[in-house]
Amino acid sequence: MKEKYIDLSAFAVLIRGGGDLASGVAWRLYNCGFRVLVTETKLPLAVRRKVSFCEAVYEGSTIVEGVQAQLISDVREAQDKWNQGIIPVLIDPECQCKADLHPDILVDAIMAKKNTGTSIEDAPLVIALGPGFVAGRDAHFVVETKRGHYLGRLITQGSAAPDSGIPGSVMGIGADRVIRAPAEGKFENLKDIGEQVSKGNLIGYVGGVEVRALIDGVIRGLIHPGISVSQGLKIGDIDPRGDVKHCFTISEKSLAIAGGVLEG
Question: Which end of the chain is more exposed for a tag (fewer CB within 10 A), N or C?
Fold first, then answer.
Protein backbone atom coordinates (compact mmCIF):
# COMPACT_ATOMS: atom_id res chain seq x y z
CA MET A 1 0.00 0.00 0.00
CA LYS A 2 1.40 3.35 -1.06
CA GLU A 3 1.74 5.79 1.81
CA LYS A 4 0.40 9.31 1.38
CA TYR A 5 2.19 12.34 2.71
CA ILE A 6 0.81 15.83 3.14
CA ASP A 7 3.11 18.69 2.16
CA LEU A 8 2.63 21.02 5.13
CA SER A 9 4.51 23.79 3.34
CA ALA A 10 1.35 24.24 1.29
CA PHE A 11 -0.36 25.68 4.37
CA ALA A 12 0.12 29.30 5.44
CA VAL A 13 -0.28 29.92 9.18
CA LEU A 14 -0.86 33.43 10.51
CA ILE A 15 -0.03 33.74 14.21
CA ARG A 16 -1.28 36.80 16.04
CA GLY A 17 1.31 37.61 18.68
CA GLY A 18 5.02 36.99 18.99
CA GLY A 19 5.55 36.49 22.74
CA ASP A 20 7.04 33.35 24.23
CA LEU A 21 3.91 31.17 24.03
CA ALA A 22 3.11 32.33 20.51
CA SER A 23 6.73 31.77 19.51
CA GLY A 24 6.68 28.25 20.89
CA VAL A 25 3.73 27.58 18.57
CA ALA A 26 5.46 29.28 15.64
CA TRP A 27 8.69 27.37 16.26
CA ARG A 28 6.97 23.98 16.37
CA LEU A 29 4.80 24.62 13.29
CA TYR A 30 7.82 25.90 11.38
CA ASN A 31 9.77 22.76 12.24
CA CYS A 32 6.83 20.66 11.04
CA GLY A 33 7.03 22.37 7.65
CA PHE A 34 4.26 24.99 7.80
CA ARG A 35 4.77 28.47 6.34
CA VAL A 36 4.43 30.73 9.37
CA LEU A 37 3.92 34.50 9.60
CA VAL A 38 3.82 36.36 12.93
CA THR A 39 2.05 39.68 13.48
CA GLU A 40 2.87 42.04 16.33
CA THR A 41 2.39 45.53 17.76
CA LYS A 42 4.83 48.42 17.36
CA LEU A 43 6.07 48.01 20.95
CA PRO A 44 5.87 44.37 22.04
CA LEU A 45 5.87 43.83 25.81
CA ALA A 46 7.19 40.26 25.82
CA VAL A 47 9.19 39.41 28.92
CA ARG A 48 10.90 36.22 27.72
CA ARG A 49 12.55 38.08 24.86
CA LYS A 50 15.28 35.50 24.20
CA VAL A 51 12.63 32.99 23.10
CA SER A 52 10.19 35.44 21.49
CA PHE A 53 10.08 36.16 17.78
CA CYS A 54 8.62 39.61 18.52
CA GLU A 55 12.16 40.70 19.41
CA ALA A 56 12.63 41.08 15.64
CA VAL A 57 10.45 44.21 15.89
CA TYR A 58 13.23 45.88 17.89
CA GLU A 59 16.31 44.20 16.45
CA GLY A 60 15.25 43.52 12.85
CA SER A 61 16.10 39.86 13.25
CA THR A 62 16.19 37.27 16.02
CA ILE A 63 16.87 33.56 16.43
CA VAL A 64 15.01 31.20 18.76
CA GLU A 65 16.54 27.75 19.12
CA GLY A 66 18.00 27.78 15.64
CA VAL A 67 14.98 29.30 13.87
CA GLN A 68 15.41 32.80 12.48
CA ALA A 69 12.73 35.46 12.24
CA GLN A 70 13.03 38.77 10.42
CA LEU A 71 10.95 41.92 10.42
CA ILE A 72 9.18 42.74 7.16
CA SER A 73 7.34 45.92 6.21
CA ASP A 74 4.79 44.40 3.84
CA VAL A 75 3.04 41.04 3.74
CA ARG A 76 4.17 40.66 0.13
CA GLU A 77 7.70 40.08 1.46
CA ALA A 78 6.60 36.94 3.30
CA GLN A 79 7.10 34.52 0.42
CA ASP A 80 10.71 35.59 -0.04
CA LYS A 81 11.40 34.97 3.66
CA TRP A 82 9.72 31.57 3.50
CA ASN A 83 11.91 30.67 0.55
CA GLN A 84 14.92 31.50 2.73
CA GLY A 85 13.66 29.39 5.62
CA ILE A 86 12.91 32.47 7.74
CA ILE A 87 9.78 33.32 9.73
CA PRO A 88 8.54 36.79 8.71
CA VAL A 89 7.35 39.16 11.46
CA LEU A 90 5.00 41.99 10.49
CA ILE A 91 3.87 44.95 12.58
CA ASP A 92 0.13 44.62 12.12
CA PRO A 93 -1.79 44.75 15.42
CA GLU A 94 -5.16 44.76 13.63
CA CYS A 95 -4.15 41.76 11.50
CA GLN A 96 -5.13 43.53 8.31
CA CYS A 97 -2.67 41.37 6.36
CA LYS A 98 -5.05 38.41 6.48
CA ALA A 99 -7.00 39.97 3.60
CA ASP A 100 -3.93 39.62 1.35
CA LEU A 101 -2.38 36.52 2.88
CA HIS A 102 -5.56 34.40 2.91
CA PRO A 103 -4.13 32.10 5.62
CA ASP A 104 -5.18 28.49 5.78
CA ILE A 105 -4.83 28.62 9.56
CA LEU A 106 -5.00 31.54 11.99
CA VAL A 107 -3.80 31.22 15.58
CA ASP A 108 -4.70 33.93 18.08
CA ALA A 109 -1.78 33.78 20.50
CA ILE A 110 -2.00 37.34 21.81
CA MET A 111 -2.79 36.06 25.32
CA ALA A 112 -4.90 39.14 26.11
CA LYS A 113 -7.27 37.01 28.25
CA LYS A 114 -10.04 38.27 25.97
CA ASN A 115 -10.91 38.27 22.29
CA THR A 116 -9.43 41.40 20.72
CA GLY A 117 -10.99 40.89 17.31
CA THR A 118 -10.44 37.33 16.07
CA SER A 119 -13.36 35.73 14.22
CA ILE A 120 -14.03 32.11 13.36
CA GLU A 121 -14.46 33.39 9.80
CA ASP A 122 -10.84 34.65 9.60
CA ALA A 123 -9.52 31.39 8.11
CA PRO A 124 -10.66 27.85 7.30
CA LEU A 125 -9.16 26.85 10.65
CA VAL A 126 -8.98 29.28 13.58
CA ILE A 127 -7.35 28.28 16.89
CA ALA A 128 -7.20 30.51 19.95
CA LEU A 129 -4.99 30.22 23.03
CA GLY A 130 -6.29 30.65 26.54
CA PRO A 131 -9.33 32.33 28.10
CA GLY A 132 -11.62 34.78 26.32
CA PHE A 133 -12.70 32.51 23.48
CA VAL A 134 -15.48 29.98 22.99
CA ALA A 135 -14.72 26.99 20.76
CA GLY A 136 -17.28 26.80 17.97
CA ARG A 137 -18.18 30.48 18.25
CA ASP A 138 -14.99 32.58 18.25
CA ALA A 139 -12.64 29.88 16.98
CA HIS A 140 -12.88 26.30 15.80
CA PHE A 141 -10.69 25.17 18.71
CA VAL A 142 -9.26 26.64 21.91
CA VAL A 143 -6.09 25.45 23.62
CA GLU A 144 -5.76 25.38 27.41
CA THR A 145 -2.91 27.59 28.65
CA LYS A 146 -3.29 27.23 32.43
CA ARG A 147 -0.58 25.19 34.13
CA GLY A 148 -1.76 21.88 35.46
CA HIS A 149 -3.34 18.65 34.32
CA TYR A 150 -5.13 20.15 31.29
CA LEU A 151 -2.31 22.31 29.94
CA GLY A 152 -2.12 22.03 26.16
CA ARG A 153 -5.45 20.24 25.79
CA LEU A 154 -7.42 20.95 22.62
CA ILE A 155 -10.88 22.20 23.54
CA THR A 156 -13.60 21.48 20.99
CA GLN A 157 -16.50 22.90 23.00
CA GLY A 158 -16.49 25.68 25.56
CA SER A 159 -13.62 27.77 26.87
CA ALA A 160 -10.24 27.52 28.55
CA ALA A 161 -10.00 28.01 32.31
CA PRO A 162 -10.55 31.66 33.31
CA ASP A 163 -7.55 33.78 34.20
CA SER A 164 -6.96 33.53 37.95
CA GLY A 165 -4.58 36.47 38.05
CA ILE A 166 -2.21 34.31 40.11
CA PRO A 167 1.13 33.34 38.49
CA GLY A 168 1.82 29.63 38.24
CA SER A 169 3.97 28.22 41.02
CA VAL A 170 7.60 27.25 40.36
CA MET A 171 9.32 25.49 43.28
CA GLY A 172 6.45 26.71 45.44
CA ILE A 173 7.00 30.36 44.47
CA GLY A 174 4.24 32.23 42.65
CA ALA A 175 3.74 36.00 42.73
CA ASP A 176 7.21 36.81 44.07
CA ARG A 177 8.94 35.43 40.99
CA VAL A 178 7.18 38.03 38.82
CA ILE A 179 8.83 41.44 38.49
CA ARG A 180 6.28 44.26 38.25
CA ALA A 181 6.68 47.95 37.58
CA PRO A 182 6.63 49.82 40.92
CA ALA A 183 5.57 53.04 39.19
CA GLU A 184 4.67 54.51 35.84
CA GLY A 185 7.57 55.48 33.61
CA LYS A 186 10.38 54.27 31.39
CA PHE A 187 12.07 50.98 32.24
CA GLU A 188 15.87 51.02 32.43
CA ASN A 189 17.71 47.82 33.29
CA LEU A 190 20.91 47.26 35.25
CA LYS A 191 20.72 43.49 34.99
CA ASP A 192 20.03 41.37 31.94
CA ILE A 193 18.35 38.10 31.04
CA GLY A 194 20.46 35.15 32.17
CA GLU A 195 22.04 36.91 35.14
CA GLN A 196 21.84 35.41 38.62
CA VAL A 197 20.35 37.62 41.33
CA SER A 198 19.79 37.42 45.06
CA LYS A 199 16.79 38.71 46.95
CA GLY A 200 17.08 42.48 47.24
CA ASN A 201 19.44 42.95 44.29
CA LEU A 202 18.79 46.05 42.18
CA ILE A 203 17.54 45.05 38.72
CA GLY A 204 16.77 48.48 37.28
CA TYR A 205 14.48 51.47 37.49
CA VAL A 206 11.02 52.47 36.32
CA GLY A 207 10.55 56.21 36.21
CA GLY A 208 13.46 56.53 38.62
CA VAL A 209 11.95 54.09 41.14
CA GLU A 210 14.07 51.08 42.07
CA VAL A 211 13.14 47.60 40.88
CA ARG A 212 14.57 44.91 43.15
CA ALA A 213 14.49 41.11 43.13
CA LEU A 214 12.06 39.54 45.58
CA ILE A 215 13.69 36.09 45.41
CA ASP A 216 16.97 34.38 44.55
CA GLY A 217 17.28 32.95 41.05
CA VAL A 218 18.11 33.72 37.45
CA ILE A 219 16.47 36.50 35.47
CA ARG A 220 14.49 34.56 32.88
CA GLY A 221 12.85 37.56 31.26
CA LEU A 222 12.82 41.36 31.09
CA ILE A 223 10.87 43.60 28.75
CA HIS A 224 12.83 45.59 26.21
CA PRO A 225 14.71 48.49 27.87
CA GLY A 226 13.47 52.01 27.23
CA ILE A 227 9.77 51.15 27.06
CA SER A 228 7.31 53.27 29.03
CA VAL A 229 5.14 51.09 31.27
CA SER A 230 2.22 51.47 33.64
CA GLN A 231 2.43 50.75 37.35
CA GLY A 232 1.90 47.08 38.13
CA LEU A 233 2.72 45.83 34.63
CA LYS A 234 4.73 42.61 34.47
CA ILE A 235 8.20 43.64 33.30
CA GLY A 236 10.19 40.51 34.09
CA ASP A 237 10.43 37.22 35.91
CA ILE A 238 12.94 35.35 38.01
CA ASP A 239 13.30 31.57 37.83
CA PRO A 240 14.11 30.16 41.28
CA ARG A 241 15.49 26.99 39.69
CA GLY A 242 18.52 29.05 38.65
CA ASP A 243 19.23 27.18 35.40
CA VAL A 244 20.54 29.72 32.87
CA LYS A 245 19.71 27.41 29.95
CA HIS A 246 16.01 27.90 30.74
CA CYS A 247 16.35 31.57 29.77
CA PHE A 248 17.32 30.74 26.21
CA THR A 249 15.16 27.71 25.46
CA ILE A 250 11.43 27.31 24.84
CA SER A 251 9.56 26.27 27.97
CA GLU A 252 7.65 23.05 28.54
CA LYS A 253 4.49 25.15 28.82
CA SER A 254 5.01 26.68 25.39
CA LEU A 255 5.70 23.31 23.80
CA ALA A 256 2.63 21.73 25.43
CA ILE A 257 0.46 24.52 24.02
CA ALA A 258 2.16 24.17 20.63
CA GLY A 259 1.27 20.48 20.68
CA GLY A 260 -2.37 21.37 21.20
CA VAL A 261 -2.29 23.71 18.22
CA LEU A 262 -0.63 21.06 16.06
CA GLU A 263 -3.32 18.57 17.07
CA GLY A 264 -5.95 21.04 15.86
Answer: N
**What does the buried/exposed string (b/e) look like for 2-41 if buried means 16 or more CB atoms within 10 Å of the residue's CB?**
eeeeeeeeebbbbbbbbbbbbbbbbbbbbeeebbbbbbbe
**Domains of the chain by range and CATH?**
8-162+252-263 (3.40.50), 175-240 (2.40.50.100)
Length of the chain: 264
Q: What is the pTM of this model?
A: 0.94
pLDDT by residue for the chain (264 residues), tens only, comes to 556 678 889 999 999 999 999 999 999 999 999 999 999 999 999 999 999 999 999 999 999 999 999 999 999 999 999 999 999 999 999 999 999 999 999 999 999 999 999 999 999 999 999 999 999 999 999 999 998 999 999 999 999 999 887 787 787 878 889 999 999 999 999 999 999 999 999 999 999 999 999 999 999 999 999 999 999 999 999 999 999 999 999 999 999 999 999 998
The answer to whether 262 and 29 have CB atoms below 8 angstroms apart is yes
Amino acid identity at 224: H
CB 159 within 8 A of CB 142: yes
Q: Which residues of 82-91 are buried (b: 16+ CB within 10 A; e: fewer)?
A: beeebbbbbb
